[in-house]
Amino acid sequence: MQVAMINDEILPLDKLDSAYLDRGLYFGDGVYEVVRSYDGKIFALDEHLARFANSLAGIEIDDVNIEQIRKKIIDAFETAKIQNARIYFHITRGSAQREHNWDDHIKPNFFLTITELPDFTGLKEKGIAVLIQPDLRWKKCWIKSLNLLANILARHAAAAKGCDEAILVDDAGMITEGSGSSFFAVSGRGLRTAPLTANILPSITRSYVIKAAEKLNIEVVEKSLTPEEAKNADELFLTVTTKDIIPVIKFDDETIGNSQPGAITKNLISEFLKFTK
Fold first, then answer.
1. What are 270-273's contacts with CB under 8 Å, separation 24+?
2. pLDDT digits (tens, 9 = 90+) for 101-111
3. CA distance 112 to 182
């Protein structure tokens, strides 16, 4: 008899809930998105769903109706009635016995949660510390894959040093992005951030920050930078869906600027919020 064991319980394998056979659990074989709402309004849903569709195509999960996914999100959001919400959803290739290859007829699994976002005003007002870590992720970071172990280990290493985020550095010694964020440096009146290559997630918040910079007549240069260049920047900040723009005041134990969020970062925070109204 084929059996499974969950903690201390042994049961026949054919009685096992299909959730335990999910290829997302076995292999991280799936993709995800995180969307947020501001004051009861979901922000940038079209852009997130377009990226989600690209991620699905990138790992060859076909026949997912994005409009049906949109409806699921909106229905759940209206049910939750949370004004400032984190909306997480993923699709995995489906549930099956553990084999590396997959059956093309397997049915994808969909999962979603909606939770309340904390107030990040304090982080914006005082800024955060970050720690550099080697970028050990796979080579297709433009796909928002469930395979996040390298990101998680980097973030945990940063937390162990009292830092809020890990800034990843590739084998060439260049900053790619944060373990869960995009990374920007401010020098003078200009912004600098890594270009969107295969090892960079095409962040939705990043794109809106660039639009905000254009509205403020701030030049944006998409060019990778080294940790040393980051340490010498006038200001640093991160962008991420759940927190939008977060100032960085300490980079790998080096104080940035006057150890306070800078003027340009503050102006970008204000300009960005106009997109959410």
1. 271/212, 271/213, 271/215, 271/216, 272/208, 272/209, 272/212, 272/244, 272/245, 273/38, 273/244
2. 999 999 999 99
3. 24
Q: Which of 124, 144, 243, 250 is catalytic?
A: 144
* 260-271: average pLDDT: 97
Told to judge if 144 belongs to the known catalytic residues of this protein, a careful annotator would answer yes
Packing angle of the helix pair 204-215, 45-58 (nearest 10 deg): 140
Q: pLDDT at position 110, please?
A: 98
Tokens of 72: 């699921």
Domains of the chain (ranges; CATH) run 3-116 (3.30.470.10), 121-275 (3.20.10.10)
- Dist. CA 127–CA 259, nearest whole Å: 8
The percent of residues in the chain predicted with pLDDT above 70, rounded, is 100
Structure token pair of residue 97: 């016995």
3-state secondary structure of 270: helix
- Can you give the pLDDT at residue 189? 85
- Beta-carbon count within 10 A of 109 CB: 19
